[in-house]
Structure formats: structure tokens, C-alpha cells
Amino acid sequence: MSAMHATEFLKAPRKHEPGPIAVLYGDERHLKGESLHALARTVLGADADELGLTRFTGTGKDLELKTVTDELLTVSMWGERRVVAVDDADEFVTQHRAALEKYLDKPARRSVLVLVVKTWPKTTRLYKAVSKIGLNLECSELKGAALLGWLVEQAAAKHGKRLARDAAALMVELAGTSLALLDQELAKLASYAGQRPGVDADDVRTLVGGWRAETTWAMLDALTDGQVPAALQHLDQLLTTGEAPQMILGALVYRFRQLAEATERARQGAPLRAALKDAGVWGNKVESASQYLRRIGRPRAERLYDALVAADADMKGGSRLPERVQLERLVVELGRRSP
Fold this sequence. Notes:
This protein is an alpha/beta fold. The chain is about 60% helix and about 10% strand. It starts with a strand and ends with a helix. The mean pLDDT is about 90.
């Protein structure tokens, strides 16, 4: 029937009938969980407590296709329709690919098979078969503007709150890109805002991440403002108080990967400010990011991504230097001016 990103499906699940099969593919487990829950409610009814949902684990070779199809064909005392999900189904699909193709020629008419996988190549016969009679839902990681848009939409849809764009960007900066964690932080922020209609950046600074997150944010700002000594001081505070070097590196990679992406967009002809916004930089961060990129010059800006990849590889065992020294060297490299 169709293929779409899970975020589009979740906006209006009842507009997208799954047919006899739905496949949830990608690395974002939160989207997979939300999509499966929405599918179950769509098929079994809004008031159903998912008694008609059966879940199997597809890892290993113990799960037989006949076990799954028998469940699909079984009439439940709770209703005529069934949803049967196979989690972590990559091995299951590989083992039973031909049989699954045959099943889809004459699938159970009133039940829905849900396969939850990481990879789902569009060139396979299975993908094409599902496209004709079912639903392919991409549950991939959200980045940049798409991630900020999701946060703004979730705040409005789930909590009735207006989330400022710069507040959304700050949430990602402080809490990372995990949708499950961001969803939890949204709930905390909505409760904190109380009767106020909106959530702003000050709310995020107060509630998300605590002192270490605030210090990390100050370190990143100092770097983009060209204040390397201040950035090193914040780095020392974080390490001295026990912040994990991998967490600090993750924050550096997240912020400067945006700038690397913006540089590539600008190289292809986009105006710099528009390129920065498309890469996920919002609010008052756009001006400081623009000044940073001009200060370091295009040749160094075009090498930002390589520097981040090298730092990540070194932190994972590619360098014998202490992790503190590795981070200090990266901070100095990112913050130094172009000759």
C-alpha cells in the first residue's frame, strides 16, 4: 500500500490501514515501539488493552514460521482480529524469506503480521510485496531539522505545550538524540511549565541535564565564540567532577557535526544561515555559528567532519594518549583561528 517514515504514520495512524503485514525497520527503537502500539490500537480498537497482540522474538533459529502463522489464523476469545509481532526479526526473515513470500500470496485476512527489523532493503521481493499489500514504516534516527520538528510536534500533540525552536535545539544539545530520553524530558518540562502554554530555553536550562549539562553547553558556546581558554576550563570542570569522556566527546561531535553539515550545504550553494538552520542550528546559535565558521575559514571548516571522526576513533582505542589529553587537543583544534 505505501512506505513512509514512522513519524508521518504516527501523526494519523488510522489514515493508514496496515493490511495483512507491516514492517518496522531502522535503528530507532522508540519509533518502533510507538508504531507497534499505534498499529495495535488501529487494528484492535482504541479501547483494546492489546489482548489481541502476540509478540515473538525472532533471534536464533527456534521460532518457526508455522508458529507465527498459526497464531495469525487463531480466533481469539477477545475479538476476531489479531496482531502478531516478531521482534528482532532479521534472522527470522533471513531464515524464512521464501516461505514469507509465499505466505504473502495468501495472507490471513483479518490479522496483521508485524516484522520488527533493523535492515529492510528496498530491492528485495519481500519489500516490494509488502509495498503492494501492507505498510513499510521507516524507523530511522531523526537528525537536524527533522529532530527539532519532531520535538515541537510532540510537545504540542502529547502535552499541549508550545515548544520554542531554540528550546528544542537546546534539549538535543543537552540530552542527545535518543527519542526515548527526549520524550521523557518533554514530559518533565511540560509538568514543570504547569499552566504556562509554552516551554522556553530557560526552562530547558533549568531542568534538562543538570549542572554538568549546563557546563557542557557553556564549553560548546565558548568554543564557537573563540574562547579556547574558557572552553578548556569548562572541560577541566567536567572531567574533575567525573563526567565520562565519551559523553563530552558526544556533545562535541553533535555540535560540530552540525557545523560540518552546514559547511557542506554552503559549499553546494546554500546561503550560510539557511544551511545552518537546515543542519539543526537555531535561535541565537545561528549567528555565533556563522561567525565561528567565518573565523576558522572554509578550508578548516571542510575538515571538521574528518577531525570528529578521527577523535571518535582515537577515543575508542586508536590512541594511547590519556582521554583527557585527547579531549584537550580536540578542543584546541576546534577552537583555534585560521592562520
